[in-house]
Design brief:
With 349 residues, this protein is mainly beta. It is built from four helices and 26 strands. The chain has a four-stranded antiparallel β-sheet with strand order 1-26-25-24, with no helix packed on it. A four-stranded antiparallel β-sheet has the order 2-3-4-5, with no helix packed on it. The longest helix has 9 residues.
Length: 349
């Protein structure tokens, strides 16, 4: 296979005074004008805007609460040429903001409910949500689109297809038997033109949904590095008993898909696998062309590869380019404070 590499172009720490620094950054996106990083602060309940040039905090939008212009647990964000959309896990709503120059966000719309919403993506006309919803006749879906202008809903991904089952009965049987929920139900998505790309954490399988026709195809190659997760008896008991400590321990032993991003030339799938020699989990990246063929699979660069309870990585694509932008969260040397840095990689052959 032709080699694909990530070439580090920039590494920058995020800078702020101690009173307003990021408490728990959940994700990031780039402002419509390309000059700022928009980062929802899950713990502080606000949105922080950082300069791409300096890494310095420039403005805070919103505050924690349940009233107007307030947020509770802002988690995921995405942007198009004009708007920024945000998922709030605490309020179970999505919010849409207009980017106001020189630096600001104006909330213009919101919607609910967003049930089990883990990710979102946006093109010019649609906000796509990786979230559970019931459609006509009680049929369940795990991804849907909201028209930004009129708020009409397009049901995109039936639940049984998300989990790889051929019928609703098969899916419901597996769900009731905990074969799905013990592993986890998180799904990740990105949208490119009118095509939604979706992955479930429990299977290396990319689902492509045409948002106009709702036609669905699946693709993805399970290499020797990937092991499909299975529910162990210990994991099953932990879920049944509500033992989150043991459940977390067992999940760390699994290989789990944790993101998908689509650039100008690549569909990039990320998964974390346990490395028994290092005693930690490492990140693998797969690169597919828009013809759905696997081009390469690489281990991610060291600074974004490892993952444990003290580290986290959020990734996004600079739209229209083959450029991956990562926000890394880690503890400082005395393990007292979270530090954040931005790493910018060009995808090169």
């Amino acid at each position: 296979m032709p080699a694909v590499q990530l070439q580090l172009m920039e590494k920058k720490s995020l800078i702020s005074d101690n009173n307003h620094f990021l408490q728990l950054g959940g994700s990031l996106c780039i402002s419509p004008d390309g000059n700022y990083y928009i980062i929802p602060d899950f713990k502080a309940g606000d949105i922080k805007i950082f300069s791409r040039e300096s890494g310095r905090l420039l403005k805070i939008e919103g505050r924690k609460g349940v009233g107007p212009n307030e947020l509770l647990m802002p988690f995921k964000c995405t942007a198009n040429e004009r708007y920024i959309a945000l998922l709030d896990l605490g309020l179970r709503r999505y919010f849409i903001y207009e980017f106001v120059k020189p630096i600001g966000l104006k909330r213009i719309d919101e919607g609910m409910p967003v049930d089990a919403g883990f990710d979102c993506a946006m093109n010019k006309g649609m906000l796509a949500l990786s979230s559970f919803i019931y459609g006509a006749h009680g049929k369940s879906y795990h991804a849907y689109g909201v028209n930004i202008k009129d708020k009409s809903i397009t049901y995109l991904l039936p639940s049984e297809i998300k989990y790889g089952y051929s019928s609703v009965d098969e899916y419901e049987s597996a769900y009731q038997g905990n074969d799905i929920v013990c592993i986890g139900i998180q799904g990740y998505c990105d949208i490119y033109n009118d095509l939604l790309y979706y992955v479930w954490e429990g299977d290396l399988r990319i689902i492509r949904v045409d948002t106009s026709t709702r036609g669905i195809i699946t693709f993805g190659k399970k290499t020797k590095n990937y092991t499909k997760p299975k529910v162990s008896s210990r994991l099953d008991r932990a879920y049944a008993n509500g033992d989150n400590v043991v459940r977390s321990e067992e999940r760390k032993k699994l290989t789990l898909v944790d993101d998908i991003n689509v650039s100008r030339n690549y569909i990039i799938l990320s998964y974390m696998k346990p490395d028994p020699y290092l005693g930690r989990r490492v990140r693998m990246l797969q690169f597919y062309g828009h013809d759905q063929k696997l081009i390469a699979e690489i281990r991610a660069p060291r600074e974004i590869s490892f993952n444990d309870e003290n580290e986290a990585i959020s990734m996004t694509i600079e739209k229209g380019k083959d450029r991956l932008i990562c926000m890394r969260r880690f503890l400082n040397k005395d393990e007292t404070d979270d530090l954040y840095e931005i790493l910018v990689y060009d995808i090169v052959k």
